[in-house]
Design goal:
It comes from Candidatus Wirthbacteria bacterium CG2_30_54_11. Binds directly to 23S ribosomal RNA and is necessary for the in vitro assembly process of the 50S ribosomal subunit. It is not involved in the protein synthesizing functions of that subunit. This is Large ribosomal subunit protein bL20. Belongs to the bacterial ribosomal protein bL20 family. With about 120 residues, the protein is mainly α. The protein has one domain (about 10-115): c-terminal domain of poly(a) binding protein (Orthogonal Bundle), CATH 1.10.1900.20. The protein contains 5 helices and no strands. It has helices spanning about 10-20, 30-70, 75-85, 90-100, 105-115. The protein starts with 7 loop residues before the first helix and ends with a helix.
Amino acid sequence: MTRIKRGVTAHHRHKRELKRGEGHRGTRSKNLKRVREANLHAGDYARRDRRARKRQMRQLWVVRLNAAARLQGVPYRELIAGLKKANILIDRKMLADIAIREPAAFTSVISQVKVALGR
């Protein structure tokens, strides 16, 4: 009977896990048990932070909009209320971008908001 050498699949699996652990320090990049643990935690943190990034970006847009709108004499909450009244359907991301890159266009949006608010 022919001899069957085992371990090829396990070896590939271990190599794949160790490859994912590159960049960690100490045993977290060498010892398979520690590498697995580190990879599990890294995956958890990555998932959590992908969601947190969305919140942080929205906060950034709100801060930028508030600053730009206040320069025009309209606080953020009034800006948003005025946009709804004026039926302007531009999201915060685009508005923040317009405020930075196209100040003249943002000023015209603010003037429409002021008209809708009755100022």
